[in-house]
Amino acid sequence: MTDQSTTVLIVAETSGGALRPGSLELVTAGRVVATELGGQLVALVMGAGVDAAAATVAACGVDRVLVADDPALGAITNEAATATLLAAIDTLGPKVVLIPGTTAGRDYAPRAAARLGVGLAADCVGLSVEGGDLVAVRPVLGGRVQTAVRMPGSRPQMATVRPGGFEKASSTGGGAMPEPLSFSLGADTRRVTVSGTTHEDAGAASLDSAQIIVAGGRGLKEPDKFALIEELAATLGAAVGASRAVVDAGWRPHHEQVGQTGRTVAPKLYIAVGISGAVQHLVGMQGAETIVAINRDPDAPIFKIASFGIVGDLFEVVPAVIAELKAAIDRG
To answer: Which of 88, 161, 276, 307 has a CA positioned 20 to 30 A from the CA of residue 142?
Structure first.
């Protein structure tokens, strides 16, 4: 292990050889911390057949790119990912390790932290440095408040970062030459294999990558009325989202849920229809550039963070909006 006390290591996950959406957000988050520490930003790209993914990360301005390319990492399983991350940490001796708060990351990150005997700040929405130590901001009490966590006794200081909390890094041209990571995956890391995956139809666009999201809540009153949300989304070429109350009621599938226990999204436009704005929902979508809220209750919490608010009956407002949009499209 080398002594690079200000190095920041980020993990760039891949799927099918392509970068997962949160990986480029982690480049941005890692750069914030590395700049404040005055250290290097190193990316670990793990997966199978990841040359293109590694080149993309390298072009985003990281100082080094370590590549862990192995068929066992094609589908990120806990033991294989944990062993790979530990090998990178052993190689670099980083001050800070940032891991995407994906389903996989939330599983292998605490495993790695436990084996190292260090702390882990989970589901972070903000990062900074004070006194040479990482300060991680994370929601607690069901998202009602946020707390700042410091781990001065940990080496490395580890955190998982909630998707949607940072902007995706863009290419700056050129970049570091990817380097192979020296690691091996023993039989104990290959006990679980993924034979295949099944993807549910998420509509015209998935929530993770959608630039526009139209989400519906209990104000729709019954599941059949969600057709209004689907029609508005189709008109805008948007993805469909839902509040937890709607999902819990069985109106919509869980992969459409936005909020604390669902997806965290940061589209350019988020339209909330019939959603009152419970804190658990707001933490999942407040990173949107523009928020439009439609609700008949003028005191609904959603209006406090909305860029534009429409107080009215959604069953009158939404059809009128759809009609205007279609007329504008027809006019070209």
So the answer is: 307
